[in-house]
Structures are given as C-alpha cells and as structure tokens.
Amino acid sequence: MNKTKEISLTDQEYSGIKSIADNFGLSITEFLSRLSSQQLLVIDPESKEDQLDLEEALLILKEAKKTGEKPMSWSDFEAELDNNEISVCSL
Known about the structure:
The protein is mostly helical. It has helices spanning 11-23, 28-36, 45-67, 74-83. It has four helices and no strands.
C-alpha cells in the first residue's frame, strides 16, 4: 500500500497547480500522479520555441531543395540584417 505524503504550498502555488490541472480536466492529485509517472511532461517554453524554429527551418530547407531554390548563405543573411539595422549575437 502506498503511503501518502503531505506538501506545503503557498496560495499562489496551489492556485497555479490547480489551474494547470483544471486545463487537463484533472484533480490536483491526478495531475501530480500523472506528472510523477511521466504520463505528463513539463517542457520549458523556450526549448519548445527553439524546437519549433528548427522544425520550421528544416521544412524551409526541404522545400527549397524540392524547388531547386538555393538557401540564403549566412553572410547574405548577416548583410540583410545589417541593412535592416538588426544585429545577430553569436555564442
């Protein structure tokens, strides 16, 4: 038999978790149970945005390959950004 545990949450934390659980149509207990058993996953929004950007870029490259269109070179891209007064920061 599983032992139950108690956790302490602020009103704001409880409200946030309840809101997320409600969005899934789950109770807080069901939500936490699914989260702990990895039936639900937490994804960082920035990581998801990066993944979507990569998928979009791959689709553009695939389409360019189909049509025979040559992708823009990095130097052309930088020049276009310079013309639009936008800077790129390299890591």
